[in-house]
Write a structure and sequence with these properties.
2 strands
């Protein structure tokens, strides 16, 4: 055992790992959203706001804006269901999904450009795993992501574009005046938080035993997760997961908001499941990458159903920060439940 541990530490560029090859950040998981704590700590709150906006949510908002202006059919076309514009949306979504997820996968998992540096586990995906389609985890994940995920995502988006084109859902026009511009920006900024709010409750529902056995079990075949694992779900789960888009039937919004909501649901799972805490840039630089909080959910199943930005897990006692103390608390709760 000592020899195995030493070898893994060397492979991880000196990062300490336990006997099973697990590495965790020194600070454990991210702290809960300080804006939802009292008393408010201004410094921590401003730091959280900066990290919330930059870089990733700013990138996703820019991508949604570019998608609306250059890659989305005009609403005069979407007022009627026609195969030409529906196929355009489907192909656009599939190409973007494949390009973005493959960028994470190829750089970190195929080329192994930074080796095991900042990688949560020392294992790599491979063939010969019978629980996956074609005995291959990556091919299995790509299939469920592109076929079930891509079709479900497109179906919801087509429904929304049709509704915008028909004028039957509330529309927010930022060109209508200063107040509408303010609301446009605020809603744009709030969408990632709403997504996490929605994700928590859908995820808890999916861990209800009948739904877990019907669909969510498929996602949890992925214990050693990678970018393609994020959207590898059963169609039942995709239908529930993408229902976040339906909020725009109630809240006045612009199609950019809906596209951001859909793309955030489609692209962030690759990042959240990427399996690395940081992506190394140059010799000393790094940018934030994966979610250690969610990594622990795939490892232990009965914790960390959401993310710290919407800290329901901290409030409801299901958070796990990777420490031995948190793991013991989880084990005590498990024994109490099974003894009841």
């Amino acid at each position: 055992m000592q020899n195995i541990l030493t070898e893994r530490e060397e492979l991880a560029d000196g990062m300490p790992r336990d006997a099973r090859g697990f590495w965790q950040p020194e600070d454990g998981t991210a702290d809960p959203n300080p804006w939802l704590a009292w008393p408010l700590k201004p410094k921590e709150a401003l730091t959280w706001l900066k990290d919330y906006i930059y870089p990733w949510n700013l990138i996703y908002a820019a991508l949604a804006t570019l998608t609306w202006y250059f890659l989305t059919p005009d609403l005069t076309r979407t007022a009627e269901f026609q195969w030409d514009w529906i196929l355009q949306v489907f192909l656009r979504n599939q190409v973007m999904l494949i390009v973005i997820v493959s960028a994470w996968h190829i750089w970190l998992w195929v080329k192994k450009s930074q080796g095991l540096q900042y990688k949560y586990t020392s294992d790599w995906m491979g063939a010969g795993k019978r629980q996956f389609l074609w005995n291959n985890q990556v091919r299995d994940n790509v299939f469920w992501s592109c076929v079930s995920g891509g079709i479900t995502w497109t179906a919801y988006e087509v429904l929304m574009l049709w509704a915008y084109g028909r004028g039957i859902i509330p529309y927010l026009d930022p060109a209508a005046g200063p107040l509408q511009i303010v609301w446009f920006v605020l809603i744009l900024a709030a969408i990632p938080l709403f997504r996490l709010f929605h994700f928590y409750w859908v995820h808890r529902l999916l861990h209800w035993p009948p739904l877990y056995k019907a669909g969510h079990y498929l996602h949890h075949k992925n214990i050693n997760i990678g970018p393609w694992s994020g959207l590898a779900m059963h169609p039942i789960e995709h239908i529930l997961y993408y229902s976040c888009i339906l909020i725009h039937w109630v809240v006045p919004s612009h199609p950019i908001h809906m596209i951001l909501n859909a793309q955030h649901a489609s692209f962030t799972p690759a990042q959240g499941h990427v399996g690395f805490e940081h992506v190394v840039v140059g010799e000393k630089g790094k940018i934030p990458a994966g979610s250690y909080f969610h990594q622990l959910h795939h490892r232990y199943f009965e914790c960390n159903y959401g993310e710290p930005d919407i800290p329901f897990d901290h409030w409801f006692g299901t958070s796990h920060d990777g420490s031995a103390e948190a793991h013991e608390q989880m084990r005590v709760k498990r024994r109490a439940v099974h003894n009841v």
